[in-house]
Amino acid sequence: MLRRVRQSLRQVLFLMARRPDLLCGAIVLGVLLVLAVKFTCSRAKNVVAAARPPVRFFSPDAPVVDLYLGQLDQVERLRSVAEVSFIFFYAPWCAHSMAARQEVQQVAKKLAKQVQFVAVNCWWSQGKCRRQNRFYHYPVIHLFYRRFGPIEYRGPFLAPYIESFVLRVITPLTYLPSRGHVEEFLSYHEPRVVGFFQFNSSPQPPGYITFLSSALQVLKRDFRGVVRFGVVTNKQVAGAISLTEDETVFLHRRFNSSLIFPRNDLNFTSEAICRWVFENRETVLQWLQPPGTKSRLLEEELTKGPALLLFVPHDPLGSQPSPALQQVADIAVRYHSCDNSHHSSWDKSFSFHSLCCQSVVLPQSSTSVCEVCLSLSWPSFATSPLHCLFPPSIQGGDIFQTYLRRCCLHQLPSPVSINSATAMGCSNFLDSYSPFSQYSACCRKVEPQLNESQAKEESEMQSVPPSLIPPFSVPQPEGDGITGLRCQTNRTLRFYVLDVALNWPLAVRLGASGNRSASLEQEDDRGGDGSFAAIVNLKDEVHYVLQHTPAATLTESLEAFIRNFSAPYSLLQRHLVGEEDRKGAEEEASRSDEHTQSPPRFLITELTTSSFLPSVMDLQKDVLLFYYTQWCGFCSVLNHIIIQLARLLQGNGTITVARVNVARNDLPWEFMVDHVPSILFFPRYRKHLSVKFPDNLPITLPNLLRFILQHSGSLHHVHKPSVETEGPGHSPFLGSEFLTLQREVQALHHARERLSQQLAQLWRDNRRLKFEARALETENAELQRERRSLEEQHREKSRQLSEAVRRLQELADASENLLNENTLLRVLLRALTDRTEAREQAEVERKETEQKRSHLAS
């Protein structure tokens, strides 16, 4: 191969040596080619315009240091001299950054004296911020407390929420100077952590700095600051919660024993304290804040079990929670407060007990309420803090239930032998030998309280064999029906709270009124505050909406709502959510003219959740219903066939072609289908004999027409007695009379619906007029205040004008006097000038005379 290359080069060189002109031409051609490539590349570089230099993002009057060139070095310098720093990373083109800019400016104007606000353009390609940081979204807010940080803010970009988070960072600890402050601090439903530190030895003990860092560490995981940290410096005040040792961290819990941070087992670091708090805290009410983007936050919470979603108004800057939130928190606390009369784990005097109890969730088929307790009998228990920790092998749910089945579930008496309201069986077991600890399990079956009639039925049931008795009994609520309900039912609810102002679209999707202002007006009329509640059971694919009653308060309505859901045979009705009926006026007109059999205005009737049953169950019409979704490709292919069918049947007033979007409209279970597209036919007069289009037939126009003609209802189907109704007591006359009565009843139903709609419209008009009159009265009062203000301003201006005129007159008089005096002075000055000149002239003449005399004398 190399030989061939060498031979080729020799031949080329030999030819160039023999023909020098060929060599010169090749050189010139190569130079031209290089110049052409260079010129083309140079032009290509000039096609891309240089990026425009960035400009200020914040207004000059805002107390925000705007580093629009991405100077990250200046951020470090400003942060090093400030107690608390607020860093706002933005992109100038980002719409979210532009929206958050106004909110940040409002917060900066309020807290500029306490916080250093800095904004950094992290999109400028030549800036240091872009080179060192890789943000996947904008804007990003970081807060620094001295050298601790960054604490990223993950909440909504609204001024009240941002300001609340900044205030949490400024004061992460709450000082508790007295026992009253400690009791008030621990009285809220949120988790509370108290640290006891004595400041006698040093200004800031090392443990205090770690405790402060742990409070800031918690804010990284929870931007709302639900877990609050308090600090006690007085030993007598610390004795209210049985704290005796210095540098002790106390976690307050309502339903189980409160805990003390185990410094002997865990490192005393901020990360360890934060992790310990989140692992052992009790949460009865959890805040949810969907980010508004693609997220599985809501799904992850709803898959844990039935959830009570409460949409309440919330003010992040309020010193006290809203009344609605206080009522919800009280209900949640009472719901989780199980009856621990045998082994109580909480004492109002903040003293510890020697029992640690934990409830066990049993299978749904059981009505047993079981509780496992750890009995401690340490000799030094009175002086040592209680460490209520179950072994890992016991905390597992399967092992827990295994112990319960082995020790005490078999000891429960059968329901037949129960004479009292409850039956209890207890047993003791040992997980491992210990001379100071022992486990005990107590289970009880809750039976209903029977009245006289039920007691008679119960006595009759005594003769029934035990195998025929149901394995469960209906629990009867005790007291108010909410306290301890969590441990009396297997349909346990999780309580979630959402800000109604931020999550109103989700509330609308669950069944709230679509118009927020209209909903607030209705709540004001009922005396409410605009809250909304719904129970979502993702496993059963159902949800229920709380229906407020005018005479009931929010607490009463919620308690009844929870009790009805927790009952084994719930009275709650599944709530169906559908699209807003955009053709309401046309359908209302068609319903009003149904008795005249007028032809429909539209080829295909679009049904929603509200209009489904009235249209499909109309006895006077055959209804062909087409089930579809917007994402189904096969449904789109069949649209032209359905349209052709509707055109063919347009002149027939007894057949309606309708369709329903099952992805956006919830339907009763009995009307749902297992796949789309599906076609159902509801014949008139025989709605109970609805027929589904066969799956093995292709959906074509001839097949659909043959299907309709085969199953359509007519009068001869009604007058002709069927096999089931044939007999001596049936006749065609009775059938026709029955049809006439059905038509009259249906006409009365339609008249009642129209009357109720008219009354509702009149009520809405009356409400609207009342609000307009109230608005006009407010405007009139405002105009009256403005008129009085203008009159006062007019009088003040008149007085000021009179004063100015008087002063001008005084100035004019003074000016005239000055002119007269000036004239007199001029006359006197002139006279003095003339006299002086005369004296000077006489003096000159005298001197000249003396000179002449002396000259003559000489």
Automatic annotation (TrEMBL):
Residues in Thioredoxin domain copies: 53-175
Origin superkingdom: Eukaryota
Region: Disordered, residue numbers: 782-801, 838-858
InterPro entries according to UniProt: Thioredoxin-like_sf, Thioredoxin_dom-contain_11, Thioredoxin_domain, TXNDC11_thioredoxin
Pfam family, one: TXNDC11_2nd
Protein name: Thioredoxin domain containing 11
